[in-house]
UniProtKB/TrEMBL annotation:
<dbReference type="GO" id="GO:0071470">
    <property type="term" value="P:cellular response to osmotic stress"/>
</dbReference>
<dbReference type="Pfam" id="PF00924">
    <property type="entry name" value="MS_channel_2nd"/>
</dbReference>
<dbReference type="GO" id="GO:0005886">
    <property type="term" value="C:plasma membrane"/>
</dbReference>
<feature type="transmembrane region" description="Helical">
    <location>
        <begin position="71"/>
        <end position="92"/>
    </location>
</feature>
<dbReference type="InterPro" id="IPR023408">
    <property type="entry name" value="MscS_beta-dom_sf"/>
</dbReference>
<feature type="domain" description="Mechanosensitive ion channel MscS">
    <location>
        <begin position="187"/>
        <end position="256"/>
    </location>
</feature>
<dbReference type="InterPro" id="IPR030192">
    <property type="entry name" value="YbdG"/>
</dbReference>
<protein>
    <submittedName>
        <fullName>Miniconductance mechanosensitive channel YbdG</fullName>
    </submittedName>
</protein>
<feature type="transmembrane region" description="Helical">
    <location>
        <begin position="20"/>
        <end position="50"/>
    </location>
</feature>
<feature type="transmembrane region" description="Helical">
    <location>
        <begin position="145"/>
        <end position="163"/>
    </location>
</feature>
<feature type="transmembrane region" description="Helical">
    <location>
        <begin position="104"/>
        <end position="124"/>
    </location>
</feature>
<dbReference type="InterPro" id="IPR010920">
    <property type="entry name" value="LSM_dom_sf"/>
</dbReference>
<keyword id="KW-0472">Membrane</keyword>
<keyword id="KW-0812">Transmembrane</keyword>
<keyword id="KW-1133">Transmembrane helix</keyword>
<dbReference type="GO" id="GO:0008381">
    <property type="term" value="F:mechanosensitive monoatomic ion channel activity"/>
</dbReference>
<dbReference type="InterPro" id="IPR006685">
    <property type="entry name" value="MscS_channel_2nd"/>
</dbReference>
Amino acid sequence: MPLEWEELVTQLDTHLPREAWAQTLIGIAALILTALFVQWVVARVVLLLAHRVLVLSGRGDWDKALQRRRAYQNLWYAVPFAVVSMGIGLVPHVERAVTIVGRLAHAGAWICVFVAFSGVLSAWQDTYSATTRAQTRSIKGYIQIGKLILMAVCTVLVLSILIDRSPLWMISGLGALSAVLLLVFKDTLLSLVASTQLTSNDMLRIGDWIEMPQSNADGFVKDIALHTVKVQNWDNTVTTVPTYKLFSESYRNYRHMFESGGRRIKRTIRIDAASVRFLNEDEAQRLMRFRLLHDYLQAKTHDIAQANQTMGELASVPANRRRLTNIGTLRAYALAYLKQNPEVRQDMAMMVRMMEPTSEGIPVEVYCFTAVTAWVEYERIQGDIFDHLLAILPELGLRLYQQPSGADIGAMGTHLREGALQAALAVEGGRPGLAAPAERGLTDAKMPR
């Protein structure tokens, strides 16, 4: 020790009280004041310097995020613990408490440091969320992984300080508990792998519309975290799906549909099979006045006339002749209507096909893609298309198939009863009693005996 320090200690020794408890109190007070002074210096110098550097470098958002997440304050709180840990041995007459207080203060300092680093990670998440890239990709899972690693390291380090053992000894002891740890943290490990794979392979983004019936999820992804993915459904409810399920189970992602700029229409019109028939020449000429059918009918009638002419006398039989059908004309009309519709994508698949007839009529399917993907506009375009096609059916002599309802059956029964009553009155004529057999439509041979 230098001579000056020895003289200073000697002078202080002459002014200190001789009682042990008084010296201890003075030593504790001096230690506390020193800790607070060093804390003030760190807060005013180091942390202020960091604040200035971030603001001057154009990282003001980082500075605000660090203040909001209390990263500065937690690092500030670590300073008094560190001073107490290093200076507790200088307090007189506290030899029994030096070890315990020193370890606790040392552990407290490290806890504050790790909490400050956790605040830095949270600040990173806040600043990233304000960018446009965060609208599609989330780093929340990585942030949570980082916090778990910090928590694990902090736990091992603090326990090693408290029990005065090497951290490597603590880590080696965890190897024997690996099976238990794997069982306890099974969901966390699965979510860790799934979250990494989902993000790195670009399988899921915030804002994606996904459909996962087994989890009752059908809506837009609102949040991607380490353990869960939140999906806001169409009824504004929120479904929370475990992250590992989105990696191990199948689901439908509509992102590529939105990116393509076209949304598919695949819907059928069921035609009453009894209304399907051939078109005669007058009907074909009348339909030729329709702008969408003019070119089709003109080309078809020319081809049919040439084909029938080559048959010769066989064309005199109606069954041998080629003729137009009203349902085939409907398909041609629907396809022409789609091709001239500016709200339908012309560069994507488009067709109108007749499917296998069933007991519920003949399905005619319309397959095309709209030029917009927004839900409301898509439904409007789809509705306009089928409104028009349903309204054009009577012009082609076709009827839409519809199963009879109770009202239809009731109306039919009433109609039959009224018809029977009118027939009975007509048969009886003007006289009461039994009508003549001929009037009843019965011959003598069929008269009941």
